[in-house]
Design brief:
This is DUF421 domain-containing protein. It is a multi-pass membrane protein. Belongs to the UPF0702 family. By secondary structure, the protein is of the alpha+beta class. It is about 45% helix and about 15% strand. It is built from nine helices and seven strands. The strands form two sheets. A four-stranded antiparallel β-sheet has the order 2-1-3-4. Strands 6-5-7 form a three-stranded antiparallel β-sheet, with no helix packed on it. A hairpin with a 5-residue loop joins strand 5 and strand 6. Helix 3 runs antiparallel to helix 4 and helix 4 packs antiparallel against helix 5.
């Protein structure tokens, strides 16, 4: 608040583009630079200890609760390191409160399933037996192109190769292959027609172009029983 009031009370003629001392040091004396180094070292040691207390999960892919803690840690440690009229104990106290709150939430999540779902998220089945779960994709705001790019990165060429795709609580995909593969919807991009035309088609199976649901080629009426879509394509075998 004091720094904001000082900035707001500065007169127009006091702001000079060549005032390098104000630009580089602000209104703090030059000696405060050495104090910043000392403050930074102390906060760094405290932060390392806090990260050890928070656990190994903070070094892995983060859940929503863990990411929130990480963002708040950045805001907590910046003020004690850089603001001359703020003591270190205030920052260390706030940091300790954050660590305690995080550990308390983890304890509640361990004891109560509902708390775990609210703070850690939940698993979603995105693909089951080569068919897209469009409702789950809508809930997690996952587009087909995003999912297809992940599957292509896992060396999948068509949905018939996929038995299950789980979207884990931490946002990571777990992919389990179908053995043996079945004819399914192509995962290759439509912008590469040359490679799509080279795909071996199974003319005995039609697949819904929206969700990948398979039906016999002579199946009628041509409305997908899974998603209601009416556009079909030949199933694709593994290349």
């Amino acid at each position: 608040m004091e720094e904001q009031s000082l900035t707001q009370n500065m007169k127009k003629e006091e702001i000079q583009i060549t005032d390098w001392q104000r630009i580089l040091l602000g209104q703090a004396p030059f000696e405060f630079l050495l104090e910043v180094v000392v403050r930074t070292l102390i906060i760094y040691v405290v932060l390392v200890l806090a990260m050890r207390v928070l656990g190994k999960r903070m070094n892995a892919q983060l859940s929503v609760a863990e990411l929130s803690v990480m963002i708040m840690l950045g805001g907590i440690v910046s003020v004690p390191m850089q603001v001359p009229n703020r003591g270190l104990l205030h920052g260390i106290l706030v940091l300790s409160c954050m660590v305690g709150m995080y550990r308390g939430i983890n304890w509640l999540a361990y004891r109560f399933r509902r708390v775990e779902q609210l703070t850690q998220g939940n698993l979603h089945i995105i693909v089951a037996d080569g068919v897209l779960n469009l409702q789950a994709m809508h809930r997690v705001r996952l587009s087909r192109q995003q999912l297809f790019s992940y599957l292509r990165a896992a060396h999948m060429q068509q949905l018939g190769q996929v038995k299950r795709v789980y979207l884990e609580a931490n946002g990571k995909f777990s992919i389990y292959p179908q053995e043996p593969p079945r004819p399914g919807l192509s995962l290759l991009p439509e912008k590469d027609p040359a490679i799509r035309e080279a795909e071996p088609a199974d003319h005995t199976v039609k697949v819904c172009q929206q969700c990948g649901h398979p039906e016999a080629a002579d199946h009628k009426p041509w409305q997908c029983p899974h998603c209601g879509h009416q556009h079909w394509a030949n199933g694709v075998c593994k290349l």
